[in-house]
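Q: How would the structure tokens look for this protein?
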Amino acid sequence: MNFAKEIMQLPKLIKESSKEMKKVKSICGCAMLTTLNVVAGTFFIPLSPTLRIGFSSIFAGVSGMIYGPVLTGFAGIIADTLKYIARPDGPYFPGFALNEFLIGMIYGCFFYKKELSFLRVLAARLCITVFINLFLTSLWLNILYQSQLFTLLRIFKNVIMFPIDVALLYFALKATKRIPT
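A: Here is the predicted structure in token form.
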């Protein structure tokens, strides 16, 4: 994985990915994966009122691999809104919808029309864990609740969950690759 080459190809990848939004088959497939994301998002293991273990991100990863960053990013916003409607805890905050958009974009940029490897999955998950889970989500929780205690708990949870998330995502993507399209 040549990092500089990957960065240089991002505009082309995003342009190519935006064509998926014009295909009925892509919109329907992405909608099904978004539905699975929402359903999985309503089932989680609560550790505290603001800290939970969930696995809905796997479906965003699969969507990013198949439909690219643009469609998966917008599907993330829809998924976040539907998850809140299905199971509201606390006030609605648009920062979390931004998180879901960025997660879809990151997964799409790492997996869309790319050779799947464990290193690629590890790098994508590391970006999401550090930038989204630890930085942005902690920022949003601090804005909402004016407490930095959440950051310490989030670090502990993300360190423990990182290898589990990487393994689950890798095996889910490998299994998806075997499905004929």
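The first strand starts at residue 45 and ends at 48.

Helices lie at 3-8, 10-18, 24-42, 57-86, 94-111, 118-145, 149-177.

Upvote if useful.
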